[in-house]
Protein backbone atom coordinates (compact mmCIF):
# COMPACT_ATOMS: atom_id res chain seq x y z
CA UNK A 1 0.00 0.00 0.00
CA UNK A 2 1.59 3.24 -1.19
CA UNK A 3 0.84 6.92 -0.74
CA UNK A 4 0.42 9.43 -3.55
CA UNK A 5 4.14 10.29 -3.39
CA UNK A 6 5.13 6.69 -4.07
CA UNK A 7 6.33 6.02 -0.52
CA UNK A 8 4.84 3.21 1.59
CA UNK A 9 1.80 4.28 3.57
CA UNK A 10 2.00 2.69 7.02
CA UNK A 11 -1.03 4.49 8.46
CA UNK A 12 -3.50 1.60 7.70
CA UNK A 13 -1.12 -0.82 9.41
CA UNK A 14 -0.91 1.42 12.46
CA UNK A 15 -4.70 1.32 12.71
CA UNK A 16 -4.58 -2.48 12.71
CA UNK A 17 -1.74 -2.64 15.25
CA UNK A 18 -3.91 -2.45 18.44
CA UNK A 19 -6.14 -5.29 17.23
CA UNK A 20 -3.07 -7.33 16.29
CA UNK A 21 -1.50 -6.80 19.73
CA UNK A 22 -4.73 -7.79 21.49
CA UNK A 23 -5.07 -10.90 19.31
CA UNK A 24 -1.50 -11.94 20.01
CA UNK A 25 -2.02 -11.40 23.74
CA UNK A 26 -5.32 -13.26 24.19
CA UNK A 27 -4.96 -15.95 21.47
CA UNK A 28 -1.43 -16.54 20.23
CA UNK A 29 0.41 -16.38 23.56
CA UNK A 30 -2.00 -18.70 25.48
CA UNK A 31 -1.93 -21.14 22.56
CA UNK A 32 1.88 -21.15 22.47
CA UNK A 33 1.97 -21.63 26.25
CA UNK A 34 -0.47 -24.54 25.99
CA UNK A 35 1.71 -26.22 23.37
CA UNK A 36 4.77 -25.71 25.60
CA UNK A 37 3.01 -27.18 28.64
CA UNK A 38 1.95 -30.22 26.63
CA UNK A 39 5.59 -31.30 26.47
CA UNK A 40 6.08 -31.03 30.25
CA UNK A 41 4.86 -32.80 33.38
CA UNK A 42 3.43 -29.56 34.80
CA UNK A 43 1.24 -30.05 37.87
CA UNK A 44 1.01 -28.67 41.40
CA UNK A 45 4.60 -29.66 42.15
CA UNK A 46 7.07 -26.74 42.09
CA UNK A 47 9.44 -28.29 39.52
CA UNK A 48 8.38 -28.81 35.90
CA UNK A 49 10.35 -31.13 33.64
CA UNK A 50 10.42 -31.48 29.87
CA UNK A 51 9.18 -34.98 28.95
CA UNK A 52 8.79 -34.75 25.17
CA UNK A 53 5.82 -36.57 23.66
CA UNK A 54 5.09 -38.62 26.78
CA UNK A 55 1.78 -36.81 27.43
CA UNK A 56 0.62 -37.59 23.90
CA UNK A 57 1.62 -41.23 24.34
CA UNK A 58 -0.42 -41.35 27.56
CA UNK A 59 -3.43 -39.96 25.73
CA UNK A 60 -3.60 -42.81 23.22
CA UNK A 61 -2.51 -45.42 25.74
CA UNK A 62 -5.58 -44.73 27.87
CA UNK A 63 -9.24 -44.35 26.92
CA UNK A 64 -8.85 -41.12 24.92
CA UNK A 65 -9.60 -42.80 21.54
CA UNK A 66 -12.92 -43.87 23.04
CA UNK A 67 -13.52 -40.29 24.17
CA UNK A 68 -12.75 -39.03 20.65
CA UNK A 69 -15.20 -41.51 19.11
CA UNK A 70 -17.87 -40.55 21.67
CA UNK A 71 -17.30 -36.86 20.93
CA UNK A 72 -17.79 -37.30 17.18
CA UNK A 73 -20.85 -39.49 17.73
CA UNK A 74 -22.36 -36.93 20.11
CA UNK A 75 -21.56 -34.09 17.72
CA UNK A 76 -22.85 -35.96 14.66
CA UNK A 77 -26.21 -36.79 16.21
CA UNK A 78 -26.68 -33.32 17.64
CA UNK A 79 -25.78 -31.46 14.45
CA UNK A 80 -27.92 -33.79 12.33
CA UNK A 81 -31.01 -33.17 14.47
CA UNK A 82 -30.30 -29.42 14.53
CA UNK A 83 -30.14 -29.26 10.76
CA UNK A 84 -33.23 -31.43 10.18
CA UNK A 85 -35.34 -29.56 12.73
CA UNK A 86 -33.87 -26.23 11.58
CA UNK A 87 -34.77 -26.83 7.93
CA UNK A 88 -38.28 -27.99 8.86
CA UNK A 89 -38.77 -25.03 11.19
CA UNK A 90 -37.53 -22.56 8.59
CA UNK A 91 -39.93 -24.02 6.02
CA UNK A 92 -42.86 -23.64 8.41
CA UNK A 93 -41.90 -20.10 9.41
CA UNK A 94 -41.48 -19.17 5.76
CA UNK A 95 -45.01 -20.34 4.93
CA UNK A 96 -47.88 -17.93 4.53
CA UNK A 97 -49.71 -18.81 7.76
CA UNK A 98 -51.69 -16.67 10.16
CA UNK A 99 -49.61 -15.39 13.07
CA UNK A 100 -46.32 -16.08 11.34
CA UNK A 101 -44.56 -13.26 13.20
CA UNK A 102 -45.71 -14.64 16.55
CA UNK A 103 -44.42 -18.13 15.73
CA UNK A 104 -41.09 -16.66 14.65
CA UNK A 105 -40.90 -14.96 18.02
CA UNK A 106 -41.52 -18.27 19.82
CA UNK A 107 -38.40 -19.73 18.20
CA UNK A 108 -36.12 -17.29 19.99
CA UNK A 109 -36.35 -18.15 23.76
CA UNK A 110 -33.93 -21.13 23.71
CA UNK A 111 -31.39 -18.87 22.02
CA UNK A 112 -32.08 -15.76 24.13
CA UNK A 113 -32.26 -17.42 27.56
CA UNK A 114 -28.78 -17.80 29.13
CA UNK A 115 -27.55 -21.33 28.50
CA UNK A 116 -26.94 -22.07 32.19
CA UNK A 117 -30.54 -21.17 33.11
CA UNK A 118 -32.01 -23.17 30.25
CA UNK A 119 -29.87 -26.23 31.04
CA UNK A 120 -30.80 -26.08 34.74
CA UNK A 121 -34.43 -26.13 33.62
CA UNK A 122 -33.76 -29.27 31.59
CA UNK A 123 -31.94 -30.84 34.54
CA UNK A 124 -35.06 -30.29 36.65
CA UNK A 125 -37.29 -31.82 33.94
CA UNK A 126 -35.02 -34.90 33.70
CA UNK A 127 -35.33 -35.57 37.45
CA UNK A 128 -37.14 -38.86 38.07
CA UNK A 129 -38.87 -37.87 41.34
CA UNK A 130 -40.32 -34.45 40.56
CA UNK A 131 -39.34 -33.82 36.93
CA UNK A 132 -41.99 -33.04 34.35
CA UNK A 133 -40.89 -35.58 31.73
CA UNK A 134 -40.97 -38.56 34.10
CA UNK A 135 -44.26 -37.37 35.62
CA UNK A 136 -46.01 -36.99 32.26
CA UNK A 137 -44.68 -40.36 31.06
CA UNK A 138 -46.03 -42.04 34.19
CA UNK A 139 -49.38 -40.30 33.81
CA UNK A 140 -49.66 -41.54 30.20
CA UNK A 141 -48.68 -45.07 31.20
CA UNK A 142 -45.38 -45.01 29.31
CA UNK A 143 -43.40 -45.48 32.53
CA UNK A 144 -44.48 -47.60 35.48
CA UNK A 145 -42.45 -45.56 37.96
CA UNK A 146 -39.97 -42.69 38.33
CA UNK A 147 -37.10 -42.80 35.84
CA UNK A 148 -33.85 -40.90 36.34
CA UNK A 149 -32.82 -39.84 32.85
CA UNK A 150 -29.39 -38.61 33.96
CA UNK A 151 -28.58 -41.66 36.10
CA UNK A 152 -28.18 -44.29 33.37
CA UNK A 153 -25.55 -44.25 30.65
CA UNK A 154 -27.64 -44.34 27.48
CA UNK A 155 -30.44 -42.12 28.81
CA UNK A 156 -27.96 -39.51 30.03
CA UNK A 157 -26.09 -39.51 26.71
CA UNK A 158 -29.19 -38.94 24.60
CA UNK A 159 -30.66 -36.49 27.13
CA UNK A 160 -27.64 -34.22 26.68
CA UNK A 161 -28.16 -34.40 22.92
CA UNK A 162 -31.81 -33.36 23.27
CA UNK A 163 -30.80 -30.37 25.39
CA UNK A 164 -28.05 -29.36 22.97
CA UNK A 165 -30.48 -29.55 20.05
CA UNK A 166 -32.96 -27.39 21.98
CA UNK A 167 -30.27 -24.76 22.57
CA UNK A 168 -28.80 -24.74 19.06
CA UNK A 169 -31.82 -25.17 16.79
CA UNK A 170 -33.09 -21.54 16.92
CA UNK A 171 -29.84 -20.24 15.43
CA UNK A 172 -30.03 -22.77 12.60
CA UNK A 173 -33.71 -22.01 11.98
CA UNK A 174 -33.28 -18.23 11.80
CA UNK A 175 -30.21 -18.53 9.58
CA UNK A 176 -31.91 -20.86 7.11
CA UNK A 177 -35.10 -18.78 7.21
CA UNK A 178 -33.08 -15.78 6.06
CA UNK A 179 -31.62 -17.90 3.25
CA UNK A 180 -35.09 -19.02 2.15
CA UNK A 181 -36.41 -15.47 2.14
CA UNK A 182 -33.62 -14.46 -0.24
CA UNK A 183 -35.04 -16.82 -2.90
CA UNK A 184 -37.14 -15.02 -5.50
CA UNK A 185 -40.84 -15.84 -5.18
CA UNK A 186 -41.10 -15.85 -8.99
CA UNK A 187 -39.39 -19.25 -9.08
CA UNK A 188 -41.93 -20.85 -6.77
CA UNK A 189 -44.86 -19.15 -8.52
CA UNK A 190 -43.71 -20.38 -11.93
CA UNK A 191 -43.29 -23.93 -10.61
CA UNK A 192 -46.70 -23.76 -8.92
CA UNK A 193 -48.34 -22.64 -12.18
CA UNK A 194 -46.72 -25.63 -13.93
CA UNK A 195 -48.34 -27.93 -11.37
CA UNK A 196 -45.28 -28.74 -9.24
CA UNK A 197 -46.11 -30.04 -5.77
CA UNK A 198 -44.78 -28.44 -2.60
CA UNK A 199 -42.30 -31.26 -2.01
CA UNK A 200 -41.09 -31.07 -5.60
CA UNK A 201 -40.56 -27.30 -5.27
CA UNK A 202 -38.61 -27.87 -2.07
CA UNK A 203 -36.35 -30.52 -3.66
CA UNK A 204 -35.79 -28.70 -6.95
CA UNK A 205 -35.81 -25.02 -5.94
CA UNK A 206 -35.51 -24.36 -2.23
CA UNK A 207 -32.99 -26.98 -1.18
CA UNK A 208 -30.43 -26.39 -3.98
CA UNK A 209 -30.54 -22.62 -3.48
CA UNK A 210 -30.09 -22.77 0.30
CA UNK A 211 -27.43 -25.49 0.16
CA UNK A 212 -24.54 -23.00 0.68
CA UNK A 213 -26.30 -21.74 3.82
CA UNK A 214 -26.96 -25.32 4.97
CA UNK A 215 -23.30 -26.26 4.50
CA UNK A 216 -22.09 -23.13 6.28
CA UNK A 217 -24.43 -23.53 9.24
CA UNK A 218 -23.72 -27.25 9.44
CA UNK A 219 -19.97 -26.69 9.70
CA UNK A 220 -20.32 -23.83 12.18
CA UNK A 221 -22.74 -25.87 14.27
CA UNK A 222 -20.27 -28.78 14.22
CA UNK A 223 -17.51 -26.52 15.57
CA UNK A 224 -19.74 -25.10 18.32
CA UNK A 225 -21.09 -28.53 19.28
CA UNK A 226 -17.67 -30.17 19.29
CA UNK A 227 -16.44 -27.52 21.71
CA UNK A 228 -19.60 -27.50 23.88
CA UNK A 229 -18.85 -27.69 27.59
CA UNK A 230 -21.53 -26.02 29.70
CA UNK A 231 -24.49 -28.19 28.62
CA UNK A 232 -22.84 -31.51 29.49
CA UNK A 233 -21.12 -30.20 32.60
CA UNK A 234 -24.29 -28.75 34.13
CA UNK A 235 -26.36 -31.83 33.34
CA UNK A 236 -24.00 -34.72 34.13
CA UNK A 237 -20.41 -33.47 34.64
CA UNK A 238 -19.42 -36.18 32.16
CA UNK A 239 -21.16 -39.04 33.97
CA UNK A 240 -22.58 -41.44 34.72
CA UNK A 241 -19.46 -43.63 34.40
CA UNK A 242 -18.03 -41.27 31.75
CA UNK A 243 -21.00 -41.88 29.44
CA UNK A 244 -21.15 -38.20 28.47
CA UNK A 245 -17.45 -37.39 28.75
CA UNK A 246 -16.41 -35.68 25.51
CA UNK A 247 -12.99 -34.32 24.64
CA UNK A 248 -13.61 -30.92 26.21
CA UNK A 249 -14.98 -32.49 29.41
CA UNK A 250 -12.08 -34.93 29.60
CA UNK A 251 -9.59 -32.10 29.15
CA UNK A 252 -11.21 -30.09 31.94
CA UNK A 253 -11.21 -33.06 34.32
CA UNK A 254 -7.57 -33.85 33.60
CA UNK A 255 -6.20 -30.31 33.87
CA UNK A 256 -8.46 -28.76 36.53
CA UNK A 257 -9.90 -31.61 38.61
CA UNK A 258 -6.78 -33.82 38.67
CA UNK A 259 -4.26 -30.93 38.38
CA UNK A 260 -2.34 -32.62 35.54
CA UNK A 261 -1.69 -29.44 33.59
CA UNK A 262 0.77 -30.95 31.14
CA UNK A 263 -1.46 -33.87 30.21
CA UNK A 264 -4.47 -31.56 30.04
CA UNK A 265 -2.54 -29.21 27.74
CA UNK A 266 -1.81 -32.14 25.40
CA UNK A 267 -5.52 -32.90 25.25
CA UNK A 268 -6.24 -29.23 24.54
CA UNK A 269 -3.75 -29.29 21.67
CA UNK A 270 -5.61 -32.26 20.20
CA UNK A 271 -8.85 -30.28 20.39
CA UNK A 272 -7.18 -27.33 18.62
CA UNK A 273 -6.04 -29.67 15.84
CA UNK A 274 -9.55 -31.05 15.33
CA UNK A 275 -11.18 -27.61 15.43
CA UNK A 276 -8.54 -26.20 13.06
CA UNK A 277 -9.42 -29.00 10.64
CA UNK A 278 -13.11 -28.05 10.87
CA UNK A 279 -12.23 -24.38 10.32
CA UNK A 280 -10.03 -25.21 7.33
CA UNK A 281 -12.80 -27.29 5.78
CA UNK A 282 -15.26 -24.46 6.48
CA UNK A 283 -13.15 -21.87 4.66
CA UNK A 284 -12.61 -24.32 1.81
CA UNK A 285 -16.36 -24.77 1.41
CA UNK A 286 -16.93 -21.01 1.58
CA UNK A 287 -14.35 -20.34 -1.14
CA UNK A 288 -15.80 -23.14 -3.26
CA UNK A 289 -19.33 -21.75 -3.03
CA UNK A 290 -17.99 -18.25 -3.76
CA UNK A 291 -16.21 -19.44 -6.93
CA UNK A 292 -19.32 -21.32 -8.01
CA UNK A 293 -21.50 -18.22 -7.56
CA UNK A 294 -19.03 -16.09 -9.50
CA UNK A 295 -19.02 -18.66 -12.31
CA UNK A 296 -22.81 -18.68 -12.40
CA UNK A 297 -22.90 -14.87 -12.58
CA UNK A 298 -20.67 -14.98 -15.62
Helix residue percentage: over 70%
DSSP E strands, number: 0
Radius of gyration: 24 Å
For the termini, the CA-CA separation is 30 Å
Average the pLDDT over all residues and give the rounded result.
Answer: 86
CATH superfamily: MetI-like
The CATH architecture can be given as Orthogonal Bundle
**Biggest sheet architecture:** none
Which fold name is given in CATH as the topology? MetI-like fold
How many H/I helical runs?
A: 13
The share of residues in extended strands comes to under 5%
Shape annotation: flat
- What are the segments in which pLDDT stays under 50 over at least 5 consecutive residues? none
What is the CATH level 1 assignment? Mainly Alpha
Number of domains: 1
The gist of it:
The protein has helices at about 10-35, 55-60, 65-95, 100-105, 110, 115-125, 130-140, 155-180, 185-195, 200-225, 230-235, 245-255, 260-295. With about 300 residues, the protein is mostly helical.
Amino acid sequence: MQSLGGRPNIFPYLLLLPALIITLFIVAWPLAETVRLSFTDASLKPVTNYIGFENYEKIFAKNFPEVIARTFYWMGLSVTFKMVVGVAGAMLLNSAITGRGFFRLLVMPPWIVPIAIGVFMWRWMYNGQFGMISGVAQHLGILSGPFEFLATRDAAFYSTIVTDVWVGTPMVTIYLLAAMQSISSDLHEAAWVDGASRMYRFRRITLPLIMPAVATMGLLSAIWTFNSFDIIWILTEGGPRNATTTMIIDTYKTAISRFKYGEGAARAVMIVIFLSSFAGFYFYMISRFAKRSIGNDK
